[in-house]
Structure formats: structure tokens, C-alpha cells
Design a protein that fits this description.
This protein is of the alpha/beta class. It has seven helices and 19 strands. The chain has two domains: 179 residues, FAD/NAD(P)-binding domain, CATH 3.50.50.60; 121 residues, 3-Layer(bba) Sandwich (FAD/NAD(P)-binding domain).
């Protein structure tokens, strides 16, 4: 059998790369399965202005490329493949990518979360060009402009409240006539003079793919079927996130919302030697910098675990 790797990292967002940088610099020769498409959610953003250290900001894909190179420079072995199966029930653990098995003494799960989308081709085409799933990342670009937020949960209202500080007007579009969000968030949003609500409606088209910039959306009233066009500069889709935890279901404990359960203040999962970092274990903060921070923690915890369990 292949000699087990000390650390196998699954996923290549800020959490995975930071874990790789720390593990590589600690001489743990980490192996990283970056996924077929490396870089995570920041590959879908344009300018990132809130990652510390970059006075003028930088493009999301450029930040991820820099992290990739930094992790590689210290000796991380990168495999451009998706993990297809994981066995945390035996030791060494087994991480599989297609037909190849990677035995591992420790595993760092950094598979992230995926923002739910509306599924419109125009939404995909205009992501980063007026369509966003992150107000704290992109709200700044819509100062004094007209903004629309889709969703009726706490995330949608949190985004709307944040955007109301920047934009001229924020309309929340919800597919029902009642919000799912907590009472306190509802009260805050309803009290805000800049926030309006459009009920029983869904976005069924975003204009204008030909110019590569959002100028309007078409809404469909789900009760009457009536369609109407609304001029907007930015559309924020806040209909929830899905943690990428399907591989780990039944192997490590997950929370009822599907996120990996970690011991508070650590990255330790229910299986000793398996750590989780970044958005896959964080449904609250979900920032690149918090993900990077927990990636650092995971690598340091893996190092301590390896020291504590070393037999030679
Ligand atoms: P959520 O509670 O699942 O809400 C998602 C919202 O999006 C729902 O209103 C849902 O409509 C709507 N939606 C889902 N799919 C849709 C689609 N295809 N088209 C149009 N609308 C769609 O998700 P979340 O708001 O991200 O919150 C996730 C968890 O984090 C919750 O437990 C929440 O309380 C928590 N959270 C808390 C805070 C806070 O306390 N400050 C902030 C953010 C999140 P329906 O209502 O019709 O299902």
C-alpha cells in the first residue's frame, strides 16, 4: 500500500490554501486535492477589497492564484481532481479521487459551501458584473444605486440592511407573502426607509447580457403570472448556501443544517485526525479571511495531532 500522507487537504479555497501553506512550512508535505476547478467561491467574484494586505484590492481569481503559488512554493503537492469518496472509519483514512486512493494520517476538509442560485443563464453570465451573492464583498460597488435582493430569510434581510447603508434604494423580492427571517430582522428591515418589499414574485430574467452589465430585471408574479420590468444596478441573490458535505455524510457528525460539526473554538470534527476549515463548517461568517484563519488552525491542529499520535 502507498505510504500514507501526513496531511491530505480536500478543497482549494482560502481555507485549503492556508492549511497547505502552514502544513507545508511545518514539513508535513501536504497533498491537496484542489478539485477540477481550483479556487472556490472567490473565483466567481471580481474585485476583492476586504482581504487585508491589498491597499487597492485585487481580483478574486488573482488572489486565489497567489495563494495556490504560495502553497506550492513550500512544497504542497497539488492534484487537480475532485475527491469522489472518503473513508474516515479506518486508519489510515482513505481519500479517493476516481480510481486513485490517497491514504492519509490526517484529513483537512476545506470543501466550502456553494451559494444557491436562481439557475438563470443570464444570472450566470452577469455574476461579478452586477449579480452577486455577497453584499459585504460587492455592496461597495453600488453606492447610491438601485439594488434588488432576492430571498426571504435572515441572509436576504441582512444583505438588504447592509446594502441600505450604501445604496439609494433596496427592494427585497420574495417568492411568498411572508418572510422566513427572524422577527427581529423583519422589524429592522421593515423600519428602514430605504428598504421596500416586492411579494409573491420571482426574478425570471436579468438584463443585459449583451452589454455585460445589469440594468434591469424582469419579475414574474407567482399568483397572477404577470411580468414586470424593474430598473436596477445590482442584484444580490441571497437564497441560502449549501455546504459541500455530501462526501462526509455518515462518516463525521454534521449539524442539522448540513455543515460539519466542529468542537467550539477548534477545527476538530467528531473523528480525531479529521479537521474542517472554512465555509464547510461556518454558516455564519463566511468570509475569505475567516476561512483562511480557520485553515491555519486546522493545519496547526493536524500538526499537534500527528505529534501526539506519533509512534516512532
Ligand atoms: P434560508 O433561511 O434557507 O432562507 C432562504 C430564503 O430564500 C427563503 O426565504 C426561501 O424562500 C428563499 N429561496 C430559496 N430558494 C429560492 C429560489 N430558488 N428562488 C427564490 N427564493 C428562494 O437561508 P438563509 O437566509 O441563508 O439562512 C440560513 C441560516 O442562517 C438560517 O438558519 C438563518 O437564520 C441563519 N442566518 C442568521 C442570520 C442572523 O441571525 N443575522 C443571518 C444570516 C443567516 P421560502 O421562504 O419560500 O422557502
Amino acid at each position: 500500500m502507498t505510504v500514507p500522507r501526513k496531511v491530505v487537504i480536500i478543497g482549494s479555497g482560502p481555507a485549503g490554501y492556508t492549511a497547505a501553506i502552514y502544513a507545508a512550512r511545518a514539513n508535513l508535505a501536504p497533498l491537496m486535492l484542489t478539485g477540477l476547478v481550483a479556487g472556490g467561491q472567490l473565483m466567481l467574484t471580481t474585485l476583492v477589497e476586504n482581504y487585508p494586505g491589498f491597499v487597492d484590492g485585487l481580483m478574486g481569481p488573482d488572489l486565489m492564484e497567489a495563494m495556490y503559488k504560495q502553497a506550492e512554493r513550500f512544497g504542497t503537492e497539488m492534484i487537480a481532481a475532485d475527491a469522489t469518496a472518503v473513508d474516515c472509519t479506518r486508519r489510515p483514512f482513505i481519500v479517493r479521487a476516481g480510481d486513485t486512493e490517497y491514504p492519509a494520517q490526517t484529513v483537512i476538509i476545506a470543501t466550502g459551501a456553494t451559494a444557491r442560485t436562481l439557475g438563470l443563464p443570464s444570472e450566470r453570465a452577469l455574476t461579478g458584473r452586477g449579480v452577486s451573492t455577497c453584499a459585504t464583498c460587492d455592496g461597495f460597488f453600488f453606492k447610491d444605486q438601485d439594488i434588488m435582493v432576492v430571498g426571504g430569510g435572515d441572509s436576504a434581510l441582512e444583505e438588504a440592511l447592509y446594502l441600505a447603508r450604501l445604496g439609494r434604494k433596496v427592494d427585497v423580492v420574495h417568492r411568498r407573502d411572508r418572510l422566513r427571517a427572524s422577527k427581529i430582522m423583519q422589524e429592522r428591515a421593515q423600519k428602514n426607509p430605504k428598504i421596500g418589499f416586492i411579494w409573491n414574485s420571482v426574478v425570471d430574467e436579468i438584463f443585459d447580457v449583451t452589454t455585460g452589465k445589469v440594468r434591469a430585471v424582469r419579475l414574474r408574479d407567482v399568483q397572477t403570472g404577470e411580468r414586470s420590468e424593474h430598473a436596477v444596478d445590482g442584484l444580490f441573490v441571497a437564497i441560502g448556501h449549501e455546504p459541500n458535505t455530501a462526501l462526509f455524510r455518515g462518516q463525521i457528525d454534521l449539524l442539522p443544517n448540513g455543515y460539519v460539526k466542529v468542537l467550539a473554538g477548534t477545527t476538530q470534527t467528531s473523528v480525531p485526525g479529521v479537521f474542517a476549515a472554512g465555509d464547510v463548517q461556518d454558516s455564519v461568517w463566511r468570509q475569505a479571511v475567516t476561512a483562511a484563519g480557520s485553515g491555519c488552525m486546522a493545519a496547526l491542529e493536524a500538526e499537534r495531532y500527528l505529534e501526539a499520535t506519533a509512534t516512532d
